[in-house]
Amino acid sequence: MFNTKTFLLLFICCGISLSKLYAQIDSGLLKRTTTDSVKNKMNMDAVYDRPLLAADKIPIAIGGYMEANWQHLGEDGISEGHQFQFRRFTMFMSSTIGKRIKFMSELEFEDGTREINIEFAAVDFEFNPLLNLRGGIILNPIGAFNQNHDGPKWEFTDRPISATQMLPATWSTPGFGLYGKHYNKDWMFGYEAYISSGFDGSIIDNEQSRTYLGATKENIDRFEESPNGAPLYTTKLAIKNNKIGELGISYMGGIYSEYQDDGLDLDDKRSVNVFALDFNTTIRRFNTFITGEWAWVNVDVPQTYTQQYGQKQQGGFIDVVQPVLRGKLLGWENASLNLACRLEYVDWNKGKFKETGDNIGDDTKSIMGSISFRPNTQTVLRLNYRHQRTRDYIANPPVLLGGFNFGLSTYF
């Protein structure tokens, strides 16, 4: 974990590097790249599909994004008033090390400097469009949001509940794997397959008092030591048609229990398995963009645990974004005004009580509306309203949460 002195040192070093880059503007050597020259983009390309600043004779390109917002929310009529938040400051650094050898990294500062995480830092070796090797800290491709999560790409200040709480948000682990793509006219096919460090026992032993995959993110030792020596397997297949959309099917699974230590058996091998579907499309007649994903989580919970810890979870979200004005707006040449809606659902404990046969509660439903303004494709101002209903384990009347969020996010 970084401390404040480390952050300041890193910030100063990055500032010096950026000053050298900007010093070359007058000589015409500084260039902004909007992508990694990927013509046929899929969700798997999101790690490179970012604007970066590059200068002649300097081997590293630099970029990033930031998110800040105001919110006023109330839960069952009780509010904490006006809250101002600086949620994220993320930096990208990329480099072409040599012919068909590339490096990309993503360093994220959350809530000021309370959390500092390396979300991605990997080297790609490109043998063939269908066969490439990636190694380092990878973003496990479960669903689509985990890889394609940059704030400026979305019309909502909050990230989807299912993708950030039921599934671990921006889940990254040290590992290795293969990926590749194939094109045929309007059709594209892509695959990814990785082995990496995995989950630990905190997914059923945590402060949330429920099955919670995101708890493993608190274990920073996972970047240097596997909790049980068993790999986590992550695979994804995706197919896209330029006129229809993209469909992805992904799986992530492995052993999470610490079943042995120094050759001694401590526990049974207990597994976690996650399946996800994601889809996005654009209705070209109206320029309506639709994206969403749905995931199923299965965890082998010990019989000694109470029914409060679910063996099965499921949930997902769908976003619908409708541009209503496009063109020259407020002095910006290629601006857009959009309306959007997000529907969300998570069942934290899918099952029935053994004693009565009644359904277990513990679920969340949410609907969000949004008005967003984009002066360009890389910057967004967004006003959201959320209405959310959450039931507890024994299905008491739901807790109601509602309120407004206003925020901005931009690449730089």
Short description:
Residues 21-27 have low confidence and may be disordered. The chain has helices at 4-22, 161-166, and strands spanning 30-33, 52-55, 60-75, 78-79, 83-98, 101-110, 115-128, 131-139, 172-184, 187-196, 232-241, 245-255, 260-261, 264-265, 271-283, 288-299, 312-329, 332-347, 363-376, 379-391, 399-411. With 412 residues, it is mainly β.
What does this protein structure show overall?
By secondary structure, the chain is mainly β. It has one domain: Porin (Beta Barrel), CATH 2.40.160.10. The protein contains two helices and 21 strands. The chain has helices spanning 4-22, 161-166, and strands spanning 30-33, 52-55, 60-75, 78-79, 83-98, 101-110, 115-128, 131-139, 172-184, 187-196, 232-241, 245-255, 260-261, 264-265, 271-283, 288-299, 312-329, 332-347, 363-376, 379-391, 399-411. It has a 16-stranded antiparallel beta barrel. The two termini are 25 Å apart. Residues 21-27 have low confidence and may be disordered.
